[in-house]
Amino acid sequence: MRLRTLAEVVDHLGQAGNAAIVDGTEVRVRRPAVGRKDRDRFISGKNKQNAVKAMVLTDGDGRRLFCRPTRSGNWTDITHARELGLVKLLADGPAVEILADAGYQGHGAQTGGRVVAPPHRKFKKKAPDWYEELHERQRKAHSSRRIRVEHGIAHLKNWRALARHLGRREHMDDTVQAIAGLLSQQQTADRTPAWQA
Protein backbone atom coordinates (compact mmCIF):
# COMPACT_ATOMS: atom_id res chain seq x y z
CA MET A 1 0.00 0.00 0.00
CA ARG A 2 1.32 3.44 -0.92
CA LEU A 3 0.20 6.37 1.23
CA ARG A 4 0.63 9.48 -0.90
CA THR A 5 -1.13 12.23 1.08
CA LEU A 6 -1.32 13.19 4.72
CA ALA A 7 -5.08 12.51 4.69
CA GLU A 8 -4.43 8.92 3.54
CA VAL A 9 -1.87 8.48 6.33
CA VAL A 10 -4.30 9.71 9.02
CA ASP A 11 -7.07 7.43 7.67
CA HIS A 12 -4.68 4.46 7.59
CA LEU A 13 -3.61 5.10 11.20
CA GLY A 14 -7.24 5.44 12.28
CA GLN A 15 -8.22 2.12 10.69
CA ALA A 16 -5.17 0.29 12.08
CA GLY A 17 -5.48 1.89 15.53
CA ASN A 18 -1.76 2.70 15.57
CA ALA A 19 0.10 5.67 16.97
CA ALA A 20 2.44 7.71 14.79
CA ILE A 21 5.43 9.93 15.46
CA VAL A 22 6.08 13.27 13.75
CA ASP A 23 9.21 15.37 13.51
CA GLY A 24 10.83 17.91 11.24
CA THR A 25 14.26 17.49 9.73
CA GLU A 26 16.66 19.89 8.08
CA VAL A 27 18.91 19.31 5.08
CA ARG A 28 21.77 21.72 4.46
CA VAL A 29 21.72 23.43 1.08
CA ARG A 30 23.91 25.91 -0.78
CA ARG A 31 23.50 29.54 0.11
CA PRO A 32 21.44 31.59 -2.37
CA ALA A 33 23.35 34.02 -4.58
CA VAL A 34 24.26 37.49 -3.35
CA GLY A 35 21.58 40.05 -4.14
CA ARG A 36 18.73 37.56 -4.21
CA LYS A 37 15.76 39.09 -2.38
CA ASP A 38 14.82 35.95 -0.43
CA ARG A 39 18.38 35.01 0.54
CA ASP A 40 17.66 35.01 4.30
CA ARG A 41 14.65 32.67 3.97
CA PHE A 42 16.86 29.59 3.97
CA ILE A 43 18.70 30.37 7.21
CA SER A 44 17.52 28.00 9.91
CA GLY A 45 16.91 29.58 13.30
CA LYS A 46 17.89 26.33 14.98
CA ASN A 47 21.25 25.60 13.35
CA LYS A 48 22.07 29.03 11.90
CA GLN A 49 22.85 27.52 8.51
CA ASN A 50 21.20 27.45 5.09
CA ALA A 51 18.72 24.60 5.04
CA VAL A 52 15.39 23.29 3.85
CA LYS A 53 12.97 21.45 6.14
CA ALA A 54 10.76 18.44 5.64
CA MET A 55 8.14 16.92 7.92
CA VAL A 56 8.51 13.17 8.52
CA LEU A 57 5.75 10.97 9.92
CA THR A 58 6.59 7.39 10.96
CA ASP A 59 4.74 4.56 12.61
CA GLY A 60 5.74 3.19 16.01
CA ASP A 61 8.43 0.99 14.43
CA GLY A 62 10.12 3.87 12.59
CA ARG A 63 8.78 3.05 9.11
CA ARG A 64 8.18 6.24 7.16
CA LEU A 65 4.55 6.87 6.31
CA PHE A 66 4.87 10.44 5.04
CA CYS A 67 7.81 12.63 4.08
CA ARG A 68 7.17 15.91 2.30
CA PRO A 69 7.15 18.63 1.16
CA THR A 70 10.26 20.71 1.82
CA ARG A 71 10.07 24.31 2.91
CA SER A 72 12.74 26.94 3.45
CA GLY A 73 14.79 26.76 6.65
CA ASN A 74 13.04 29.62 8.44
CA TRP A 75 9.78 27.64 8.75
CA THR A 76 9.04 26.22 12.19
CA ASP A 77 7.78 22.67 12.69
CA ILE A 78 4.40 23.83 13.97
CA THR A 79 3.88 26.18 11.00
CA HIS A 80 4.79 23.41 8.56
CA ALA A 81 2.24 21.06 10.18
CA ARG A 82 -0.47 23.72 10.07
CA GLU A 83 0.24 24.50 6.41
CA LEU A 84 -0.07 20.80 5.51
CA GLY A 85 -3.43 20.63 7.32
CA LEU A 86 -2.40 18.18 10.05
CA VAL A 87 -4.41 20.00 12.73
CA LYS A 88 -7.63 19.96 10.68
CA LEU A 89 -7.18 16.31 9.68
CA LEU A 90 -6.71 15.23 13.30
CA ALA A 91 -9.47 17.43 14.72
CA ASP A 92 -12.05 16.23 12.17
CA GLY A 93 -10.74 12.70 11.58
CA PRO A 94 -10.31 9.43 13.46
CA ALA A 95 -8.90 9.17 16.98
CA VAL A 96 -5.17 8.87 16.29
CA GLU A 97 -2.31 9.51 18.70
CA ILE A 98 0.60 11.45 17.21
CA LEU A 99 3.75 11.77 19.34
CA ALA A 100 5.64 15.01 18.76
CA ASP A 101 8.52 17.00 20.19
CA ALA A 102 8.39 20.42 21.85
CA GLY A 103 8.23 22.11 18.43
CA TYR A 104 4.58 21.00 18.17
CA GLN A 105 3.38 22.19 21.58
CA GLY A 106 -0.02 23.80 21.20
CA HIS A 107 -1.32 21.25 18.69
CA GLY A 108 -2.60 19.05 21.53
CA ALA A 109 -5.27 21.58 22.51
CA GLN A 110 -6.22 22.22 18.86
CA THR A 111 -6.65 18.52 18.06
CA GLY A 112 -8.43 17.35 21.19
CA GLY A 113 -5.31 15.80 22.69
CA ARG A 114 -4.40 13.75 19.61
CA VAL A 115 -0.97 15.37 19.30
CA VAL A 116 1.05 14.49 22.40
CA ALA A 117 4.02 16.78 23.06
CA PRO A 118 6.39 16.70 26.04
CA PRO A 119 5.03 18.38 29.18
CA HIS A 120 5.48 22.10 29.74
CA ARG A 121 7.65 23.21 32.65
CA LYS A 122 5.39 24.75 35.24
CA PHE A 123 8.27 26.24 37.24
CA LYS A 124 10.81 28.30 35.33
CA LYS A 125 12.92 29.14 38.39
CA LYS A 126 13.34 27.60 41.82
CA ALA A 127 11.45 24.42 41.01
CA PRO A 128 10.94 22.03 43.95
CA ASP A 129 13.01 18.85 43.87
CA TRP A 130 9.94 16.63 43.56
CA TYR A 131 8.84 18.57 40.47
CA GLU A 132 12.27 18.29 38.79
CA GLU A 133 12.24 14.52 39.25
CA LEU A 134 8.65 14.20 37.98
CA HIS A 135 9.29 16.43 34.96
CA GLU A 136 12.49 14.58 34.04
CA ARG A 137 10.76 11.20 34.33
CA GLN A 138 7.86 12.35 32.10
CA ARG A 139 10.26 13.89 29.55
CA LYS A 140 12.36 10.70 29.34
CA ALA A 141 9.29 8.49 28.97
CA HIS A 142 8.01 10.66 26.11
CA SER A 143 11.42 10.78 24.46
CA SER A 144 11.87 7.00 24.59
CA ARG A 145 8.47 6.54 22.87
CA ARG A 146 9.31 8.88 20.00
CA ILE A 147 12.94 7.89 19.35
CA ARG A 148 11.85 5.75 16.37
CA VAL A 149 11.19 8.83 14.23
CA GLU A 150 14.83 9.83 14.72
CA HIS A 151 15.87 6.40 13.43
CA GLY A 152 13.61 6.85 10.40
CA ILE A 153 15.13 10.26 9.68
CA ALA A 154 18.63 8.83 10.12
CA HIS A 155 17.93 6.27 7.37
CA LEU A 156 17.02 9.16 5.05
CA LYS A 157 20.16 11.08 5.98
CA ASN A 158 22.37 8.05 5.22
CA TRP A 159 21.95 9.01 1.58
CA ARG A 160 24.59 11.54 0.59
CA ALA A 161 22.08 13.72 -1.29
CA LEU A 162 20.25 14.38 2.00
CA ALA A 163 23.31 14.64 4.24
CA ARG A 164 24.09 17.89 2.42
CA HIS A 165 22.31 18.81 -0.80
CA LEU A 166 24.59 20.45 -3.37
CA GLY A 167 22.08 20.54 -6.21
CA ARG A 168 19.37 23.08 -6.95
CA ARG A 169 16.96 23.79 -4.11
CA GLU A 170 14.06 23.66 -6.59
CA HIS A 171 14.67 19.91 -7.06
CA MET A 172 14.85 19.10 -3.35
CA ASP A 173 11.25 17.82 -3.14
CA ASP A 174 11.89 15.33 -5.93
CA THR A 175 15.12 14.15 -4.28
CA VAL A 176 13.45 13.62 -0.89
CA GLN A 177 10.53 11.75 -2.48
CA ALA A 178 12.81 9.53 -4.54
CA ILE A 179 14.91 8.53 -1.53
CA ALA A 180 11.84 8.02 0.67
CA GLY A 181 10.33 5.81 -2.05
CA LEU A 182 13.50 3.72 -2.33
CA LEU A 183 13.63 3.25 1.43
CA SER A 184 9.94 2.37 1.56
CA GLN A 185 10.50 -0.26 -1.13
CA GLN A 186 13.48 -1.59 0.81
CA GLN A 187 11.42 -1.87 4.01
CA THR A 188 8.67 -3.91 2.37
CA ALA A 189 10.79 -6.00 -0.01
CA ASP A 190 10.89 -9.77 0.41
CA ARG A 191 14.33 -10.51 1.82
CA THR A 192 14.34 -14.17 0.69
CA PRO A 193 17.04 -14.61 -1.98
CA ALA A 194 15.68 -15.65 -5.40
CA TRP A 195 17.67 -18.89 -5.41
CA GLN A 196 15.99 -20.01 -2.14
CA ALA A 197 12.44 -19.28 -3.25
Q: How would you explain this protein's 3D organization?
A:
The chain is an alpha/beta fold and 197 residues long. The chain has one domain: 2-Layer Sandwich (Nucleotidyltransferase, domain 5), CATH 3.30.420. Helix content is 40%, strand content 16%. It is built from eight helices and seven strands. It has helices at residues 6-16, 77-84, 86-92, 107-110, 129-145, 147-157, 160-163, 172-188, and strands at 20-29, 51-59, 64-67, 71-72, 98-99, 115-116, 164-165. Strands 1, 2, 3, 4, 5, 6 and 7 form a seven-stranded mixed β-sheet that branches. Strand 5 (98-99), helix 4 and strand 6 form a beta-alpha-beta unit. The chain is globular. 27% of the residues are buried.
Which secondary structure elements does this structure contain, and how are they paired or packed?
Layout: H1 6-16, E1 20-29, E2 51-59, E3 64-67, E4 71-72, H2 77-84, H3 86-92, E5 98-99, H4 107-110, E6 115-116, H5 129-145, H6 147-157, H7 160-163, E7 164-165, H8 172-188
Parallel strand pairs: 1-5, 1-7, 5-6
Antiparallel strand pairs: 1-2, 2-3, 2-4
